[in-house]
Amino acid sequence: MTPKRLFPLLLIAAVACGGPPDARSAADLEPPAPPPLPWERQPSDPPAVASPLVALVGGTVMTAAGRTVEDGVVVMENGRLHAVGARDEVPVPDGAEVIDVSGRFVTPGLIDDHSHMGVYPSPHVRATADGNEMVDPVTPGMRAADAFWPQDPQLPRAVAGGVTTIQVLPGSGNLIGGAGAIVKLHLGRSVSEMEFPGAPETLKMACGENPKRVYGSGRQSAPMTRMGNVHGYRAAFQDAIEYGRGFEEWQAEHQSWQRDRQRYDAAVAAGEIDPNAADPGDGPSDPGPAPLPPERDFGLERLLGAIQGRVLVQMHCYRADEMARMIEVGQELGFRIRSFHHAVEAYKIRDLLARHDVSVSTWADWWGFKLEAYDTIEENLPLLTQAGARGILHSDSAMLVQRLNQEAAKAMTAGRRAGIPITEDQALRWITINPAWALGIHEQTGSLEAGKMADVVVWNRNPFSVYARADLVFIDGQRVYDRAAPNPVYRTDFEVGQDLELAPEGDR
Amino acid sequence: MRRCTLTLLASLLAAPAAAQAPAPIALVGGTVLPGDGAPIEDATVVIRGDRIVSVTAGGAAPAGAEVLDCQGATITPGFVGTQVPLGLVEIGLEPSTVDEAPEDDDADPIRASFSVVDGYNPTSTLIPVARRWGVTSVVSTPSGGLVSGTSAWLDLRGATLDRLLVEERAALHVDLGDGGIREGGGARSSALNRLREAFDDARLYRQRRASFDRRGLRELSISRLDLERMSEALGGDFPVVVRVSRSHDILRVLAFAREQGVRLVLAGAEEGWMVAAQIAAADVPVILQPMTNLPAQFSQLHARYDNAALLHAAGVPLIITTEGAHELRNLRQEAGNAVASGLPADVALRALTLEPARVFGVDDDYGTIAAGRVANLVVWTGDPFEVTTWARQVFIRGESVPLTTRQTQLYERYRDLEQVPRGLRGLPRAP
User: Fold this and answer.
1) Where are the alpha helices (DSSP H) in A175-280?
2) Mean pLDDT of A264-286
3) How far apart are CA B40 and CA B12, in angstroms?
4) pLDDT tens-place string over residues A206-248
5) How far apart are the first and last CA of chain A?
6) Is the pLDDT of residue A7 over 90?
């Protein structure tokens, strides 16, 4: 982030120093390039990762890419999957550590695109409740990463549930809460050591009851109604549009200034004018210093990013009518919604969601905790999948995240009970490649395909069983969890020394 | 006095039942997990009226019986939801639909006379949802305060109390978790003192009722109705369920119950495994949620997945519950996860059936599949705890109940979007 912030200063410095003056006449000059914008960041290559050459041999490999391989082989090294296939297709390379997983099941690492771990950690106390900046309903400048506590005891328990990547979101108290943090669950000392390399920025927004309850009912301030909610998004995005326009105007001004500068420098070089003389003579006048860019606003910049498509909008929204409305509001203001979260009524507008390619992140069966969650049906995900929409099973819970596989199984079962034939591959996508898509990381992870990140789980039995447990979890090819190891669940700093008076019995 | 409600009800039901003489129902060919013994393969379960009349292996269906082919199915007693406010809450955040506790923040934290049956809504849409997944009875439980009130055992069928109430006062509920401690003054000692004073007053009231009526007693700390209810708990009419988490708090509650002479049941007990031997020695049952494994509060830093298994291994009787009334359909998932963490499957089943019946005093009628018991049972497509099975058929008091819910009706409505009103866009196009 630091280089990005410094960018305008560097830019100004570069322009002010200028290059060697061009002696050609002003009319011959190429039109100057517009100055780069502060949010235009250079793509960076993912960091090189060292991990051993490992072959998982003999398991049932569920790829989440349309293929299930009995007696399969998965080869990984240096953070990447090298090969995935049947035993007769994929040779086990020499020197590989061979792990016999016959009778067991291999899946991609699970991905939860809706988590508050790290910003609402355990234990739940005021001191670490850091997920909702509820002082203003519009706080797009917030970033969950800035509050993420990597010692949250919830995190290693999610790993034990086979979860390898999560999106940590600000809460839904605000209309626009801020940026999510995409983190991989190889634990680190700071969020920077866990952030998913190259993941696009995301933006949390919230519809419905929460913002109007927090502000309207809680504080007698806007928004008090769903009208106020939508007005709040409109006003914020309009500000962002104008913010972007300010930069466009600056770019134009800057280009014109560069032209003046070039003309002036050329005239000086040609001796047409003498800047040091009392009367410099007839010719262009000194254009002075470069025009300064508008004042930077990190929040508006993120909203502008949503309009420009570089920031993926994650919108908390339960009701079908509100989701439909938000798609229209997005069209009007120029932003797309990447995923509706919670979305218990998505089934009512599944045709619309499929047509607009908006994904749906929801639960298997949560309902009734508030009125906008009253129309949950168990067949929500199956109906969405049947309609060609992209369904995602998310947790929003440090309990549920430990059992995403069971929740997907429940939704799959509800579909089958209703006569909607959901396959295990489809159900697996709800917790792997589909959330990866919602986060814009689907080309990097989310399925077992050669070249992708080696985020892999070995289950002791079919993961769509209540009795299934993750035996091994690999993230970037690193073994981060091994159920057979003594004390397999990493004990965070917080947990150290809490049990000095306990008898040493059994594993935690 | 304990089962007068049910006895009366049974005799009321008997009259029209006898007049109609309904045909017996025979469930044939399934595997019966009776709740208190070995599985019975190829079983024949015969139901007549609201009771099970026989359970045999390979037995013939009686003449004239309605025969249901249960081959490949597993039959269990109906599950019992406990420690949840079913029928007392419709929408969690809408106070007008919530009757599990007084809304007023300043309400007296001791409200022993708060009675679930006064607020129970048998038409709640939560009830069919629980039933669809094999829950046939509930011990609907109040919440909040330090003494929350009394729970009731109800069957999940019928629109009026006379058809569904089994036990009006199943237990008195006390909260010594973080919430109850806060309501009891904010410290463990202040909450326990409040409780101690209330029980002491109730004992005095119990011993010297006549003096109380003459206003001949010192000032008592709680209201007359609360005294009445707590005095019944002291008399052993029903158990006292105490919500508590921390291991050492559990020991304090065991001592408190001994000192007061009440029949104790622990609920929550996230750190129960640490004092399992003491709980077992006191012969105190525990109501717990097996999937709770997070150090979510300082009072449960040692919560762990195998709490149920460790408590069972120490000899503690278990009842399994789940997060709340809306989540009752996931009782079986809780049980399945307890099994995956080491609890024997038959113990997990018992924890959803016979153990709640025993703890709340209705095990003569409920909790097992056996001749003479109320015919609350569930026909599953397979392993009742597995997340890929479902309840094919649910019987409550001998009646096969519809598995329709508000949710399945919404599904039916939206199964074909062409059938849903869609404004102008949904109108047929002009030719």
Assistant:
1) 209-211, 218-219, 226-269
2) 87
3) 33
4) 999 999 999 999 999 999 999 999 999 999 999 999 999 999 9
5) 38
6) no
Which residue in chain B has the smallest CA separation from A379? B411
pLDDT-derived band at B5, boundaries 50, 70, 90: very low
Residues of B in contact with A154 (CB under 8 A): 294
Asked whether residue A21 carries a pLDDT value surpassing 90, the answer given is: no
Task: Quickly count: other Cβ atoms within 10 Å of residue A270's Cβ.
Answer: 14
Neighbours of A177 (CB within 10 A): 29
pLDDT digits (tens, 9 = 90+) for B315-361: 999 999 999 999 999 999 999 999 999 999 999 999 999 999 999 99
State the smallest CA–CA distance between residue A506 and chain B in angstroms: 10
Query: CA of B122, closest CA in chain A: separation in Å?
Result: 17
The chain B residues in contact with chain A (CB within 8 A) are 90-94, 126, 274, 291-298, 301-302, 304, 306, 310, 326-327, 329-330, 333, 336-337, 339-340, 385-390, 407-408, 410-411, 414-415, 417, 420
- What single DSSP character describes residue A77? E
Cα A35 to chain centroid distance, Å, stands at 29
Handedness of CA B336, B341, B346, B349 (dihedral sign): negative
Question: Using CA atoms, how far apart are residues B254 and B266, in angstroms rounded to an integer?
Answer: 9
Q: Which residues of chain B lie closer than 8 angstroms to A413, CB-CB? A: 387-390
CA distances from A495 to A40, A123, A279, A316, A500 (A): 42, 10, 78, 32, 11
Instruction: Give yes or no for a contact between A431 and A404, defined as CB atoms under 8 angstroms apart.
Output: yes
The answer to whether the CB of B54 falls within 8 A of the CB of B46 is: yes
**Which among A374, A371, A327, A372 has a CA at the least distance from the CA of A349?**
A327
CB contact burial B15-30 (16+ within 10 A = b; e otherwise):
eeeeeeeeebbbbbbb
Write the DSSP string, A324-361: HHHHHHHHHHT--EEEEEE-TTGGGGHHHHHHHT-EEE
For range A251-274, the mean pLDDT: 93
A120: chain B residues, CB-CB within 8 Å: none
Distances (CA, A) of A463 to A435, A457, B44, B388: 18, 10, 34, 11
3-state helix, strand, coil in chain B (%, to 5): 35, 25, 40
> Which residues, in sequence order, are CB contacts of B69 under 8 Å at separation 6+?
B28, B29
Strands A456-459 and A470-475, by their bridges, are: antiparallel
CB A392 within 8 A of CB A363: no
Closest CA relative to residue B120, chosen from B104, B140, B137, B149: B140
Q: What is the structure's pLDDT at A499? A: 86
Q: Cβ contact (<8 Å) for A377 and B92?
A: no
pLDDT at site B431: 52
The beta-carbon neighbor of B387 closest among A124, A157, A466 is: A466
Residue A489 DSSP code: S
Judge whether residue B250 has pLDDT over 60: yes
**Contact by Cβ (8 Å): A202, A311:** yes
- Give pLDDT, residue A46: 75
Checking if the pLDDT of A406 tops 80, the result is yes
- List the beta bridge partners of residue B187: none
d(C-alpha A177, C-alpha A202), whole Å: 11
